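User: Need the bound-state model for manganese (II) ion:
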Amino acid sequence: MCLSFFIVKPPVNADLHCHSTVSDGLLSPAEVVARAHANQVELLALTDHDETGGLAEARAAAAAVGLPFVNGAELSVSWGDQSVHIVGLGLDTENAELAAGLAQVRSGRDGRARRMAEALDRIGIHGVYEGALRYVGNPALVGRAHIARYLVEIRVARDVSNVFEHYLVRGKPGFVEHEWARLEDAVRWIHAAGGVAVIAHPGRTRLSKAELTRLFDTFKDLGGEAIEVVSGSQAGESALEFARVARRYGFLASRGSDFHGPQESMVDLGRAEILAPDLTPVWSRLV
Ligand code: AMP
Ligand code: MN
Ligand code: MN
Ligand code: MN
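Assistant: Bound-state model below.
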């Protein structure tokens, strides 16, 4: 009988990437926490897009049930002609540099939504801006998911992912170019706020292998610390590839569901695959 079997600790059920109605999730911050707790999550970060406004509510709800909680946000970044997402974890929400940076990124969203609506108007789909706003929980944070929900409502497509595929990604009629934060700014804001920077779902970007390598190299040079080896919004097989990346670059490894809501997300809170045991989890730096 192998004694080590009894002393190996089970992995922490950490979920360090999810969304609430403060960005494009379907549950309030407190509802997200309640669901995470019910799903046996042991360490939770709420990471709304470009926004920290839900963290106080989530933190209070987490404290009430004894669930360790980490402040987070998912920052929208332009990388070449693509966008990538950088999660910041362990953020001081009072930090002025981060707050100003996030406000700047948010400020472009309304105009972008109007331009997307105009583009859709030109192909005969009308009222999209007003329709999308009915799905928005935070007027500063209108995004493609809200537009997609409205397009499902008016039966332009059968579900949200179908709307994205046919209307909202590059090359499709509702897509518009947009300038997000620069990578170096996003990483600097996160660090200014005492946080750890994490490349979100690297397997979901539409980057070529070479562009992805350049992203990892640049992120490392900027002092970026971690990548999501396991994410509910990238294919399960890619965990092997990104575990190798984490080892090669010395990145900490993160794990998150990218949960948006029970009806929309493939992976529920706390239900992503576990990390390979040799990786150093990003939460070793957070708790
Ligand atoms: P935005 O920040 O407005 O560009 O919207 C990005 C969000 O759209 C992501 O965080 C997801 O919530 C959602 N999204 C992006 N691509 C897809 C997709 N293929 N299917 C469903 N939702 C998607
Ligand atoms: Mn989202
Ligand atoms: Mn994302
Ligand atoms: Mn996300």
